[in-house]
């Protein structure tokens, strides 16, 4: 493919990137830009050109040796829900905008420490950015089949670097407050993560199943290559130790790389997004590494003995197969991996450079005397120039230094440099005794060892030339050989440098921290970082400061950076949060901390401290005073927590009382309804008896036959009245718990037959066929008279609802281990679904009746439920599969 066509494609891709970023910034908090999946995918900025090309080169040269770089992050991912959430909370409440701010704030707002961390990061990351430019340049020439030009004017990478610098400087500095969320950048990076994964999987499928005949085919052919077996095994204990240190190295990188800290901490909108990230990000890494092996060894098979750079296998394979489409798509995927790393890294480095070196050591005086508009423009311009300069500096490093090194070596060296922040970083959130001096000593000592054992040999090319320092050590002292320090010769250079540098780093960090007491501010922040969950809601209260400060002076400083309106709004929020009178002249520690936080995002933690300190008069505080105040603060927080818990409990009790009151009102209404229904039900037979009695009393000429009918009506209604009163009394006794049940061993089949006997005439009158089936033992312990009452009620209900012709009632008793289940099923119309839950209520009669409403008190099923529940059983209703209803109850065999 020609260079011109590929440049047009790249220009279109960069235009798409600009559009996505612009759209995301414009839309703000819509679902497509602010969700856990976008956040999780943005973390895949970890997969840079090193992953896209370098891991293939490493797998081709050393087999499974590429895996530790991905195993480390996966191992630590489950701890994210604890560690990373803690870091996010600390950063959010303190308005932290970079890892340098994070570390320097923890160790007493140290300006020097912030600058030191920034320099270490610059030293490690600038060559890493250069690596991405190298990858873009090399792959561009592979795709276009051209050679690299030594003249930067004709070098395509020059213009790519400029375009990326412009993009990052525009979208990375849209806000003066560096702690603000950059939705445009995050969305663009998430989109690139999807694209680079898709293109890589496309390549993997193409190589595995088109160029070759599956994984088995590649493995079979690769096994015939020289050194295959040795490369694709972990080996013995020395190799396992190398793996361990490489896993540890990548574990640190996922926390400490500036681009990872930027995306995982600074750009985190919601803590709960971590729940998605802890499974989606490892899945992403798994998918990315699924085809590394077949591509790497497929390339070894195809290019055996041809001297092709393994880093370019992903492009060379589709190219030699004559597939330009796959070649270009793979190139775009690698281009995405490189530019997302460059953009995010340059933004985070620019923030660190401005907030920890340029402003505190150069521009702070000018910012103090300017107005808000001038300061904002100046800060933004500093960061824009910083981003542009960093990308161009990386381009110069790429041209002058990294051309002779492969992607893997540069990437791992950068990881080792960044790992020097690990003791100070993890100590910041886990160890109270860690001090500024300890952090400085540890980082400095570790970096010096790292420089001696790794950076100097790599930078000077001594490792390749096999100079005397490598083979004999300086001045012939073999114990000081950089790659086998003190005789440790079984580690490869990167794990070797990591081991010695971390050993020295941790030793100095801990030894100095326990030997020399830090100042009060260090201990103050130590408590606030380690116990962030205690202070997260009222962290200003945990800040210790003593002296004289005036609210008006602090407001003047804030106005120079926030402006009149934002300062006024911020002060109103503070006054409402802590119930402070807006006219109060003297400021306390809470306002000092609040003001520092507001300035931190603009100028960094160290500069914010310097500015606020310039308008307040602080008094010295001894360490015992700090500990005493912190203890009191803890007690206050505990008291506040208990008060909050008590308040919540009172709210729950209030809600329960309200619910109980509503239940009482409901029961009162039920009682009224019950009395109304009872009165109505009792009045009906009494009225019928009275009417028949009056007729018999007043009319002497009634025919004898009619007299008998009236007398029969009186007897029938009297029986009905008697049954109704008995049922009401029974129900009342059951509901109040005064009704006893007399348990004895019985046979449920015989009990059912006993209940059927008095109903035989009624069954015969309606021509109903009754079928009784049993399975297993039907013996149980129950009150037989009461269960007869239940079965009678259920049978009477079934008889009422059986059709006038061809009525069938099925009765079944089943033995279910510890329970007997009895089912009475009719073939009537069934139960209205709305009535199923209500038919066991008092006086309830369904509207779904056969022709006319049956006669009944409406208490039979209610009493049946009470009886069954007193036996520790259950009773319910359901519709049959065809037609009709089922009434089912269970009885335990032994109570």
Give descriptors for this structure.
mainly alpha, Helix Hairpins, 9 strands, Sodium/glucose cotransporter, elongated, 5-stranded mixed β-sheet
Tell me what the structure shows.
With 895 residues, the chain is mainly alpha-helical. The protein has 4 domains: 3-76 and 109-419, Up-down Bundle (Sodium/glucose cotransporter); 537-621, no CATH class; 626-736, Signal transduction histidine kinase, dimerisation/phosphotransfer (DHp) domain (Helix Hairpins), CATH 1.10.287.130; 744-892, Histidine kinase-like ATPase, C-terminal domain (Heat Shock Protein 90, 2-Layer Sandwich), CATH 3.30.565.10. The strands form 3 sheets. It has a 5-stranded mixed β-sheet. Strands 1-2 form a two-stranded antiparallel sheet. A hairpin with a 5-residue loop joins strand 8 and strand 9. Helix 1 crosses helix 9 (183-211) and helix 8 runs antiparallel to helix 18. It starts with a helix and ends with a strand. The model is unreliable at 846-856 (pLDDT under 50).
